[in-house]
Amino acid sequence: MDAYTQRLLHNRVTETLEAIDTTVAAADDEVLAVLGATELPMAVAALRALLDGHVLDDDGRCRACRTRVLRRPTPGCTIAATVHHAFTDHQRGRRALTAAATA
What we know:
- This protein is mainly α.
- The chain has one domain (3-102).
- The chain is built from 3 helices and 2 strands.
- It has helices at residues 3-26, 29-52, 78-102, and strands at residues 61-66, 73-75.
- A hairpin with a 6-residue loop joins strand 1 and strand 2.
- The longest helix has 25 residues, at 78-102.
- The N and C termini lie far apart (52 Å).
């Protein structure tokens, strides 16, 4: 895939995510239910596809995450770590909002 096509795909995904964020921020329960039924399965499938390509071997190295210099698999996986941190941060934020609402 050439750089132009990669840029187009990146922009399209970014625009889709921004549209979902904007819609969720202003949505009522009915719209949220529709989004949950349509967009959530797509997001889960995309994350699974991404993570399926980033599996640690027996030495704890991700073959998809390679250094540029030696082209060796790196320890751990930056993609899996990024996804994990995003979920962890989101869960922390949700717990903080829940605690503030019940206080």
